[in-house]
Amino acid sequence: MHKENSQRPPVLQHVSQNVRRLRNSADLSQTALAEKSGVSRRMLVAIEAGEKNVSLATLDRVAEALEVAFSDLIQAPENHDYSRINELAWAGTIAGSKAVLLARAVARREVELWEFCL
Fold first, then answer.
1. What is the annotated signal peptide range for this record (predicted)?
2. pLDDT mean across residues, the chain
3. 10 and 58 both lie in a single domain
4. Which among 6, 26, 56, 112 is most buried, taking Cβ atoms within 10 Å?
């Protein structure tokens, strides 16, 4: 068992955080999710605490009960930094020429969407 977050494997941290967040977003108690998924409440408590290596089949049942993709349970939480969105990054000498960051998303590498007006 891993008592502290820092000692848990990263995937267990992601699973525990994501299951708890998605369960709360679905407005389900642990008991309700247990009934809906067929996974024991005790197992769900251990998953949310990051204390249990959980099988893929169990995670699949939890994902189905939460009506989310399996990948939503195991992915790293997104780091939403919107501080630079719609910020002027460059302005040219010609009137109206500019570059503005419109959006960003974490993919295998970071992806950014820019608008350039020349």
1. none
2. 81
3. yes
4. 26
Q: What's the domain range around 113?
A: 88-117
Q: Which of 53, 52, 47, 51 is nearest to 21 (CA)?
A: 47
In a domain, 101, yes or no: yes
Does residue 46 share a domain with residue 96? no
Q: Please report, rounded to a whole number, the percentage of residues in the chain having pLDDT higher than 90.
A: 37
53-77 pLDDT, tens digit each: 888 899 999 999 999 988 888 887 6
The domain tally of the chain equals: 2
Distance, in Å, from the CA atom of 80 to the CA atom of 66, rounded to the nearest integer, reads: 23
Domain membership of residue 62 (yes or no) is yes
Token pair listed for 106: 């974490």
